[in-house]
Design goal:
single chain; 257 residues; five-stranded mixed β-sheet; 10 helices; elongated
Length: 257
């Protein structure tokens, strides 16, 4: 990628809220939602999957929040990086870490869905998941090792549209890269989380994927076994599963249990 292309990509990522590290230590958000439902208990360090980073950053503006892919977050937990809470965009990551004794029991905090996103205006005229297999369609999807990539392959297989994998011009390590590529027009379509499409608004055109092809996507949270602040961490997870945390999640396009 050229220097100009790298700068362009970084600028768009910042504009649509996809930073890798978010440190919030300023005054509380002044949005009407924040004012009405308050904020999560403070004093914790959170490892959060990138699709959930914007909502966690708003509900916990005083905490240190590090975002990344499922594999990157799991690696940090395994390596013993000091942190209190893991918030994952899948259940497999949290379940595997819990099985190794590295976290407490994971709690399901929200559910998500897959959608197809295209650049605004839908220039390639994508109207269904089957259209992703048309010759010439430039598709961006998650890599096989990423949570979004695993979900995407399940959806394509369930839709008998796995031939679309041959149109992948990019296999991204995380969901944030998929949305950035589509917004930039570097792909005709991408498969992303519905919560991401909700956040992007008019920047993208959204095409639904049938319920019959949807994988079960459960966003989970767990207290790390070596959390420096275990009581605060437990309170934070409790907030995520409570009415105020669920209000934040719904506002950001997630479904809640």
């Amino acid at each position: 990628m050229s220097v100009r292309g790298a700068v362009r990509l970084a600028a768009v990522a910042v504009l649509i809220g996809l930073g890798a590290i978010i440190v919030r230590a300023t005054s509380p958000s002044t949005s009407s939602t924040s004012l009405s439902i308050g904020h999560a208990p403070s004093g914790v360090s959170v490892l959060v999957a990138s699709p959930l980073a914007p909502v966690v950053a708003e509900m916990a503006p005083f905490d240190r929040i590090s975002s990344g892919t499922a594999d990157a977050l799991a690696a940090q937990v395994i390596e013993g990086v000091p942190a209190d809470v893991l918030v994952a965009a899948d259940s497999a990551t949290a379940d595997a870490l819990h099985a190794k004794g590295l976290t407490g029991p994971p709690a399901v905090i929200a559910h998500d869905r897959l959608v197809i996103i295209t650049p605004s205006g839908n220039p390639a005229r994508i109207h269904s998941i089957a259209d992703l297999a048309r010759p010439g369609v430039r598709l961006v999807i998650g890599s096989p090792g990423s949570a979004i990539g695993r979900y995407t392959r399940q959806a394509l297989a369930q839709s008998h549209a796995s031939a679309a994998l041959g149109n992948a011009v990019q296999q991204a390590a995380d969901a944030a890269t998929i949305t950035t590529a589509v917004v930039l027009g570097d792909a005709d379509a991408g498969i992303a989380y519905a919560s991401q499409a909700h956040a992007l608004g008019a920047k993208v055109h959204v095409v639904s994927i049938p319920t019959s092809a949807q994988p079960v996507i459960s966003d989970t949270a767990a207290v790390l076994a070596k959390a420096p602040h275990p009581a605060s961490a437990l309170a934070f997870v409790g907030y995520l599963t409570g009415p105020n945390g669920r209000a934040y999640l719904r506002r950001f396009g997630f479904a809640v249990p």
